[in-house]
Fold this protein.
Amino acid sequence: MLASPSAKECNPGPERVGKEDNAMATSAELAPRLSDASVRKIWDVYSAFDWPDEIDPETDWCMSPELISIHGTEVWDGLSERQRKRLSLHEVVNFFSFVLYGERPLISGLMDRMYRKNTRGPITEYLHHFVDEENKHMIMFGMFCNRYGGKIYPEKKIVLPREYAKGEEDVAFFCKVLIVEELGDFYNLKMMSDPRIHPLVARINKVHHIDEARHLSFGREFLRELFEEHREAWSDEEMAAFRTWLGQYLASSWGDFYNPAVYKDAGLEDGYGIRKMALSHPTCVRFRENASAKLVDYFLDVGLLTERPEF
Ligand SMILES: [Fe+2]
Ligand SMILES: [Fe+2]
């Protein structure tokens, strides 16, 4: 039997984010508290984990079964437990891969926005922590993917150039940040305390969630203020075009979760057919609606969206 050692429990690791009283605070009020929390919870990516030599893809769950992209479909029903576990390793490597790719433009976008007129002072100080933590996340995810999946799944997104209304590029940037972080956090929260999955995977999800709780709390408030600042200057057409883009961007973000290469690596035939089936399968559509609900509620509340996107 292959080794399945537990992940390091100490060092001291970011165990809890703390219950800061963040309700109704502005981003400028939140930023110093979040910076303090980042300093208190600082961790070292190179010593935070014990890395087992290997993870046995046929005995360990690497993703909670209910989160696997084809869970609840006829294809899933036809798989043995060993096949399902094998798929769970490739699925988690895919999940970590596209979160890593989402963090790369996030870091460069945050760097671009430091020391601007509207971010000087405590906000830029917090952005330094944000960037530091995202950089560590990329290292952590990269190490897992390369060691146990033998690869980081390549990025599929194509960014098309487009024209922006005044302030729209910043609003769109922070919407994209929130989408990758909220959807990622939905998975982190489920996996971090799932006793069925490999302890290293649970630990990586927990470490990520603890930093992300601060990023999300800042991002939600900063985006709300940014949108309030710019929305009045946008024409009705610009507002409508933005909302159409946002709904489509959110729905298309889910495409990353259904990767034909993952199905192929797990030994399943017709990866493209499986992706197509899952994208339109009612169980998978319901899952995406449910997993996106908190994020969509926020967009509706702020006015960034006026109707629920179709998943
Ligand atoms: Fe992250
Ligand atoms: Fe983050």
Q: What stands out?
A: The chain has one domain: 27-49+58-302. Residues 27-49+58-302 form a domain with the Ribonucleotide Reductase, subunit A fold (CATH 1.10.620.20). The chain is about 60% helix and 0% strand.
